[in-house]
Structures are given as C-alpha cells and as structure tokens.
Specification:
The chain folds into two domains: about 140 residues, Periplasmic binding protein-like II (D-Maltodextrin-Binding Protein, domain 2, 3-Layer(aba) Sandwich); about 100 residues, Periplasmic binding protein-like II (D-Maltodextrin-Binding Protein, domain 2, 3-Layer(aba) Sandwich). The radius of gyration is 21 Å and the shape is globular. The longest helix has 26 residues. By secondary structure, it is α/β, with parallel strands linked by helices. Helix 2 packs across helix 8. The chain contains nine helices and eleven strands.
C-alpha cells in the first residue's frame, strides 16, 4: 500500500514538473508575444527583437500598463507556443476563418500587398491570374500567403506551386531561375532582396492587399486583456503616437475600422 501511494505521489510530482515549464513563460508576464523574423516588420538587431511591429506592440503595452514579454521563433513554433499556452499572442498575421476559431484579434496594425516577384529577364507586369499561366511559383507556407496564391492559381492555367519552408529559399530559387516567380508580401520581398543582395529580382505587380494583426489565444488569454490592449491602441492612434513610430520606418498607420474583402 505504501509503495502504491509513493508511486502516485511521484507520478503527480512528475506531472507538475512537466506542466510548469509549459506555463511559466506566459505566467511571468501579463502578455507573452511570439513573433518571427519577418523583415521589415520584425527582426533581430544584436539579439534584440526589433522593428516597427515590435515597437508598436511595446508602445501599446506601455499605454495599457501591461508587462509584456517577447520571443522570436520560427513561425511554426510561434504558432505552437500560442496554441499550447507558452505564449498569449503572436504577430504579425492576417485573418482567415481557421485562425478566427482559436484567436481574438487586435485592430489592424499594418497594411501590406501580396504580389509577384520575377527575374529581371522576365518582362511580366502582373495584372490578372492569367498572366502567370505556365509559371512555377514559390511561396512560403503553410501560410495565409500560400492560401491566397492557391486561390489565384484556380483562375490561371498550368501553374505549379513550390511551397517553401521559409521566405529566403524561394527567393534563392528565383535568383538562380529554378522557379519562375515568388509570391510574397511586397515589403517582405523587397527587404529580402536587399538583405541577400539579389539585384536580379524585381517586383512585377500586386494581386491584393492584406491587413496584419496581433492574434490572441482564446483559450489562454482572457478577453478583458485583449480589450485592454485594443483600447490602448485606439488611444495611441488618436493621439498620433502610432503614426510617429511608423514615420521612422517610412510606414503609414492603418485606420482602425479598415477591412478588406480579400481577407
């Protein structure tokens, strides 16, 4: 009997040891945010998580008097941290019906464009899906960007998709002409070209616009905290403080009530 009780006690203790690390990251802050290396919005500078998205979220946290922590991870891990409670929220991401099942969203923080990049030897000026018929197109995915590309491909002919695990590999393949095009956020793509010095790649045209948000876990983050975050954002927007932050990065603010039919 004593041995049986000892086994139960040991089992409970081991369970506590396993669970506590999973909860500690989020519990040490009012809000724990996960993000990814996503220039020009978020990136590392000397091991510090930086960029306009980070600075905007930090300003909102300060205004809301919330203690916020940040971690930069590969996007799949960032999503897993939010799904398992290691983080409360993640940014930046676009809305889609699947995400809305598990996430509450901030007001839109940034507006971007989805479009096509090609080699400079390609004369493509993208206007409609038919323009990429016969192309092999690289895209980072699984992602909202990839979902949008799949929709475009339905209206073109003989287009193949090369799904890549990161943004860089698609641009590398385009630079060496192993794919015909890359479908990406315009500003992310331009930052990637600059970073990798791939001057043989150019932007060929925009397909659609996209709004980027912070997504908060419905399971692990109370709606009161989300409302507090969003109210602080509105105050900063109204007093032009968000605008002042974004001016440093040559970016513009997004109206809080803006919505896009493509999302």
């Amino acid at each position: 009997m004593a041995n049986h009780l000892s086994s139960i006690v040991i089992g409970v203790c081991l369970s506590i040891v396993v669970v506590l690390p999973c909860l500690s990251s989020a519990q040490t802050h009012d809000l724990m945010f996960a993000t990814q290396d996503f220039p020009p919005y978020s990136y590392l500078i000397d091991e510090d998580i930086s960029g306009p998205a980070v600075e905007v979220v930090q300003a909102i946290c300060k205004e809301a008097e919330l203690d916020c922590g940040f971690e930069m991870l590969p996007w799949a891990r960032a999503q897993k941290h939010v799904a398992t409670g290691l983080a409360n929220a993640m940014f930046l991401l676009a809305k889609n019906p699947e995400r809305a099942l598990s996430l509450n969203f901030s007001y839109p923080l940034f507006k971007g464009d989805y479009g096509f990049f090609v080699h400079k030897t390609d004369e493509l000026e993208y206007q409609s899906p038919a323009d990429i018929s016969g192309y092999r197109v690289a895209v980072y995915g699984p992602s909202n960007t990839a979902i949008r590309l799949q929709t475009i491909v339905e209206h073109a002919s003989k287009v193949s998709i090369d799904m890549r695990p990161d943004d860089e590999s698609g641009f590398r393949k385009l630079n060496s002409r192993r794919v015909s095009a890359v479908f990406s956020n315009k500003y992310v793509g331009l930052a990637m070209i600059h970073k990798m010095k791939m001057h043989s790649i150019r932007y060929a045209g925009t397909d659609s616009s996209v709004l980027y948000y912070v997504g908060f876990s419905k399971k692990y983050t109370g709606i009161t905290l989300v409302d507090k975050f969003n109210a602080a954002y509105l105050r900063l927007h109204e007093t032009q403080q968000i605008s002042e932050i974004l001016k440093k990065y040559d970016m513009e603010t997004v109206p809080p009530d803006l919505s896009l039919t493509s999302q």
